[in-house]
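Um, can you check?
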Amino acid sequence: MDEVHDNRLRMVKVGARLLLALAALVYVYHYGRSIDQSFPSRNFTVDGKGEVNTTPDIATFAVTVTSEGGKDVAAVQKMNTDKMNAVNAFLKDSGIATKDLKTMDYNLVPRYSNTSCFGGVCPPVTTIGYTLTQTLSVKVRDTAKIGDLLTGVVEKGANTVSGVQFVLDDD
């Protein structure tokens, strides 16, 4: 009789667990349907366009000094440095602050001999000299001076002046 009693007790426990699981599923289903209906109505989209018209208050440009020389790297560097120092001094004398002058590029590259191959024999490539290119970024706060500055840097040894832009200092 104890065995029959234990089987009935187990059956009642299993039935109670199934009833609880079914009740939990029904509750979750109804709860999910109740909150899911209100979500889409809370969305909104904003699309806009803005435009600001203002006058640029600074100009920027790049100054490049390129020097070619022989195999003596120090001599090429000195030649380039002398020209760049003259450009820097001109800019500072023209009222450009040191904080508005920034080196953007310093590039030293070898130049090689152009040798022709004869009969399938090619002589070794040799270095015949070096080319040094140095680029300086300039910020001009008095835009009325821009024309004189562009002319002056070329007179002081700059090979290239590029990237002239009129922009806002604090956009």
